[in-house]
Design goal:
Elements: H1 4-9, H2 25-37, H3 51-64, E1 74-78, H4 83-86, E2 101-109, H5 113-121, H6 125-128, E3 135-140, H7 144-148, E4 154-165, E5 168-181, E6 194-201, E7 206-207, E8 213-225, E9 231-242, H8 252-274
Antiparallel strand pairs: 1-2, 2-9, 3-4, 4-5, 5-6, 5-7, 6-8, 8-9
Length: about 280
């Protein structure tokens, strides 16, 4: 997965024009549902999250986005994660999750579902996105062959990243993974298979210099097919960072430019797929 911190904030001197209005209640609720159910049944409310539930959720997501992404691209802000939702991922030490502000985007990406899955799980993210990292190392933590054979629904990985944003160099360690959702046709109105990815920062990033911070990051992405050559991308993230001079997670200007960086990431993926990835 792309280092979205660097991707979004590298462009901060530019003027942002993306909406930072709160997401509609149904869209906000779906962002939280996907976060909670990535691994299956949610410990937050004990509700199920098997493939048929994900297929139904994707139908609802498509409707919330305006029907086959009629409103894409779109963006906005999300309500905070809860302590119980933070506890679903590895955080050491636990932090005040209310300090992490939520945003989302939705867009149409010119890739097949197979292509976007392969891009997202690729070990060599630095080669896919030249100039985005100083160093990047990803290792799988589960059996990738079993995942690709659809013998395992989830793939896990760890990433160790060094990057420089706005002249400040930092190191971050993240855990992440992908989930392939099968649509067996049993859910009326199903839109086909989907791919979901979840990534989180395990501990605050470490900066070489003082005065800047990147303390929390929680990401959930959903891709589902619009056609054989396009997918709809819904990306929700909750992040705590401080770049000084008022550029933090609560700044609408910083949020807007972060959204712009995420749209640029979708454009880069479209280009990768057009090149035959």
């Amino acid at each position: 997965m792309m280092n979205h911190l660097a991707f979004g904030l590298a462009a901060l001197p530019l003027v942002a024009c993306h909406s930072t209005k709160p997401a509609p209640a149904d869209l906000d609720g779906l962002a939280h549902w996907y976060w909670q159910h990535y691994d299956g049944t949610s410990p937050v409310d004990e509700s199920e999250g098997g493939d048929p539930d994900f297929v139904a959720a994707t139908i609802n997501l498509d409707a919330a986005l305006g029907g086959s992404a009629a409103d894409a691209p779109s963006s906005g802000t999300l309500s905070d994660l809860s302590d119980a939702e933070q506890a679903l991922v590895t955080i050491d030490p636990a932090r005040d999750v209310a300090d992490a502000a939520g945003i989302y985007i939705s867009a149409i990406v010119g890739c097949s579902l197979d292509q976007i899955e392969r891009i997202t799980i690729d070990l060599n993210q630095d080669e896919l996105y030249p100039g985005s990292y100083d160093t990047y190392e990803r290792t799988y933590t589960t059996d990738v062959d079993a995942y690709l054979a659809r013998e395992a629904s989830h793939l896990g990985w760890e990433s160790n990243i060094d990057a420089t944003v706005l002249g400040a160099t930092y190191h971050e360690d993240v855990v992440g993974g992908g989930r392939y959702v099968t649509d067996d046709g049993s859910t009326e109105g199903g839109l086909g298979a989907a791919f979901v990815s979840r990534v989180s920062l395990t501990a605050p990033a470490v900066y070489e210099a003082e005065g800047k911070s990147f303390d929390q990051d929680y990401q959930i992405e959903i891709y589902y097919p619009l056609s054989d050559t396009e997918v709809i991308h819904f990306f929700a993230l909750w992040r705590q960072y401080d770049y000084g001079t008022g550029l933090d997670q609560d700044s609408s200007a910083a949020q807007g430019v972060m959204m712009g960086g995420l749209f640029d990431y979708d454009d880069d993926n479209t280009a990768l797929c057009a090149d035959g990835f």
